[in-house]
Amino acid sequence: MKKALFLLFFLSTLVGQAQLAPNFVVQDLDGTEHRLYEDYLDEGKTVVLSFFYSDCSICANLFYHLEYHLSSTWASLPVDALIMSGVDNNDQLTEYQIQSGVDLPFVAADGGSLEAMAPYMNPNEWGTFYGYPMFIVIGPNRDLVYDPWGQSIEETMGLVGDAIAAVNTVGTEENGFGEDFQVFQGRNGIELRGLNAAAEVFIHDIQGRELFQAALNDGTQSIPFTPLNSQILLVSVLTSEGKKSQRIFFQAKD
Length: 254
What we know:
The protein is an alpha+beta fold. The protein has helices spanning 2-14, 36-40, 59-71, 90-100, 113-117, 153-166, and strands at 25-27, 33-35, 46-51, 79-84, 106-107, 134-138, 144-146, 177-186, 189-195, 199-205, 210-216, 222-223, 231-238, 243-250. It is built from six helices and 14 strands.
């Protein structure tokens, strides 16, 4: 437990120290368009990018575990994955997907993967590119963790999970937010602490659906929104200089 908490703290100190993740637009093998900002991050979602090539010997098993954790371990969180190859074309990746049985969106060079992957190759702002496969975990604030990778597939999945938590960790002392900034369930519904500037608040459910949006005055401590059902909510607070997001479990009253 201590090791996990230290790793989460360490990853949290890394995010936000480099430039933010750039936007991209790609098309998967079915022709569906994926826009990083508009379809994912702006909807409160975290995105796990995986870069690989179809001749990778471990990748089918790696993606099997990724798919498993997305549907179980991280199922309560708004997390999606995109798998990209800058080497393979649509036909090659279609054959790979059929053979591997992986039911996740694949993006080939035909669909714009090279342009989307380019910022993360050497040299880049976040780390050293050692080769494929690799992961990039990008949070709603556009912060990212670069290449969480362990000694085994399960250890790697654990590090990806820690990265998901890290890019959703609320920072302090910046952009209109005080040291004690918190979002929590209070007596009157959802409450804030430590907001030092006027802001907008957005609330999404775990499917990324927007449930509420409103403008808040400087020092506002109560959000006029009370969900009817108990659920996990993503509360994003946007000032003129920055944005912070925090997940809370809201326990509805009987």
